[in-house]
Amino acid sequence: MSEESGVLTFGSEDNLHKQVLASFLLCDMTEEDLRQNPKFCELLTSLAHRVDKTGLSAPLKTEAKQKLLPQRRLWLQSESIHRALQEMIQDHKIRKHRAGVPPDENMFYETVEKCLLVAQCARQLDPSDTTQMDRPSILGLNPQDVMALMPSEKNMQRMKERVYGVLEEHLKKKCFNFLLYYQPEWENHSDSLNDCKLSNLSAQLDKDKNKVEDLKQSNREKTVLLQRQTQLYLSEMTKCIQLLQSFILETRLKTQTDLDRKKLGYFEGKSELVLETIMSQLVAIKLETYTVDSISTHKEIRKKLESELRACRAEKQSLESKLSSFEILGKEFEALAQQYGKLQEQIEIQKWALKEFTKYNDK
Questions:
Q1: 52 three-class SS
Q2: Residues 247, 249, 253: CA angle, nearest 5 degrees
Q3: What is the pLDDT of residues 34-63, one digit of tens each?
Q4: Does the structure show a pLDDT above 50 at 318?
Q5: What is the mean pLDDT of the chain?
Q6: Cβ density class 187-213: b for 16+ within 10 Å, e for less
Q7: What are the backbone angles phi and psi of residue 165, rounded to the nearest 5°?
């Protein structure tokens, strides 16, 4: 974007959004806003040819500057002279306390101080267009009452004859001090050369001031651009972080599946190893328990138990055959068997009683 004869010229379409944002720094917009609203972007582009960065049109800014400049210059002149006179009076009081001063010089500065004080009071008492005409006066005084306190005409005349030269000398001294502060390397130059440089000091200050303003404006533009780039950077960083989080989550799930599969294989192998260890321990216990002697003994016991088992089975078979023959006899034999059982119980009881009775008699 270039500026020639007060007309702004935008560059290529790729940089159009950035140039529009740079032309309106006070507007809180982004390039995305301009992309989504192309008509609004065209409106801002057309306005950028007619207004400056602060929003003022060029004719209005020029007119306001032309109207304010003479009044500003007049106020600065009067204010500079007033402050210079006050500084002169203050310097005179300091010199007066440090050492004696001539009577005529003392009278001159007293006259100047009195004139400034009376003029200031008269200005305060003078009802101008910016004050209310019907307001009560201070202590019942008016400007004419205060003006009567002005120094004598003779002292006023002497002061007027001298004040311009003294004021010029004071201002020249201040200018030289400022010149040496602004360019310390000029301190050893001649007075004529310093006078020449002093005449160009105003133009140099204006040039430096414009340079500072340009740097400030450039700094503001860079600050706004940096803020926008920071916002864009943070937005992109947020997207990258979200993408990275999703990638980490997906990778973690895949890795977790592989890890679980490997863990499962590991635990299966470990379980098989534990089972084999248990079986080997069982075999070792059996080997320690069943020695050659114990095995032969167990074989003998087994043979004996098997023979007894065969005898019991034969006896069982015999009893079962007898029981089957008894069952053939029917219910009458069952009644006889029950009666026989009762008789056997009575016999046993009689035997026990006889045994107990015999024990008692022996005692």
A1: coil
A2: 115
A3: 777 878 777 777 777 677 666 667 677 777
A4: yes
A5: 77
A6: eeeeeeebeebbeeeeeeeeeeeeeee
A7: -65, -45
